[in-house]
Amino acid sequence: MTSEASTLEVSGEKTAQTNLSPKEIVAELVRRARAAMEAYENHDPERVDDAVRALAWSIYKPENAKFLAEMAVEDTGLGNVPSKIIKNTRKTFGTLRDLLRAKTVGVIEENPERGMVKYGKPVGVVAAVCPSTNPAATPVNKAMMAIKGGNAVIIAPSPSGQITTAKTVEFMRAELKKSGHPEDLVQLLPAPVSKETTQELMNQVDLAVVTGSQNNVKRAMQSGTVAIGVGAGNVPVIIDSTADLDDAAEKICASKIFDNSTSCSSENSVIILDDIYEDAIAALTRAGGWRCTREERDKVSEKLWIDGKLNRHVIARDPDVTAKALGLAPEAEQSKFFMVEEDHIDGKHTFADEKLSLVLTVYRAKDFADAKRIVHDVLEVTGKGHSAGIHTKNLDHARELAADTDVVRILVNQAHTFGNGGGFNNALPFTLSMGGGTWAGNTITENLNYRHFINITHLVTTIPEDKPSEEELFGPYWQRYGK
């Protein structure tokens, strides 16, 4: 490191620096990360789990969870404190459960019958690009997965969430130090965060994992570095004729209002079958929804998007603030979310698009086939590959929706925000980053998890020959078409 004067914040520390270029700044962070990996006891599963627990405790600790939640809302202006406390603790607890049950270093799998032994090894230095919507929970979530794989991680925060993420990294480093692990296993891209330094970070590491801006995802994919990006959400959910309407409405409400709809898993559209339409609307109203009039619908349309962009005075705001900003009736301020009924699907910056707000689009479907069509068309606007859902007692409808819809996740009778990223009552891994497959331009078709942070060496020994006859393999073809 040079000693010429200016200041570079590295992982919460201040170090004398010259006016370094982004390339030089990142090179120093990567050097420190590699040195930390050399000192990390990542050959020892117990020590690895000890480090993972340290990171989890840094945000799960009640006073830290509350402090970071309050800081995040103040820092970004997005979401609400109670939800962020839940996010900081619930996601961390669930992820810790998953990681402690997994083998990632040393021998991770043995299959003597197949003559196969698998060894888990680190991928190297990881860049974790994180969004403003989760400036505390996502950095810890990614760091836990990276450290579980024996890696070091450098976190690139969103500029609007940088203060919160810096404090989060400070907490993580403190717990690592307390438990005897190298602090530089977790570092922070220094302020001021820019596209240039974030890009340089993605260029120099061994793996870039990007959540948030689709521009960042695209640039990561073009960086030449192995990259994992996740797609945009815009969840459409069907309520069919067999659904428990009050149960569906309560779950949709709970999910929609969580953290004021900052989650990519939040329901953005509800498609209701014609024969139960009014009953379902009534249930949603009982759950806390406000049914906008046609005039109010036009006001929402005018205020939600300004010059082709979501209005920052509306997105992720409390319901009373949202109602006032949208120009709704005073009574609407007492509601929890706002329903806008639509009879057609337009393109970007319309009610079919992701809204990141307490506005919920409602479509009326003639029948189940029509409901599937609406889901398809909504996802073609935004969110293809991510998720969809259904409230039903007819599992054939759920299976049909899963078979016909190009998304990674179909949730049945669940609140999306509490199920999409893993739940204690479903089998999805806990995460804050959800891949959408090639439909979304992503390299993964599952929830981001520890498997994406390890390389695997396969030790292969011989087994009894497993070579079928030509007749076994070609016989059916020969019988149909001849030789």
UniProtKB/TrEMBL annotation:
Listed GO MF terms: oxidoreductase activity, acting on the aldehyde or oxo group of donors, NAD or NADP as acceptor
Top-level taxon of origin: Bacteria
Residue span, Aldehyde dehydrogenase domain: 11-286
Pfam families per UniProt: Aldedh
Keywords: Oxidoreductase
EC number annotated for this UniProt entry: 1.2.1.81
PANTHER family: ALDEHYDE DEHYDROGENASE-RELATED
Annotated NCBIfam families: AcylSulfactDhSauS (NF047625)
Protein name: Sulfoacetaldehyde dehydrogenase (Acylating)
Taxonomic source organism: Candidatus Filomicrobium marinum
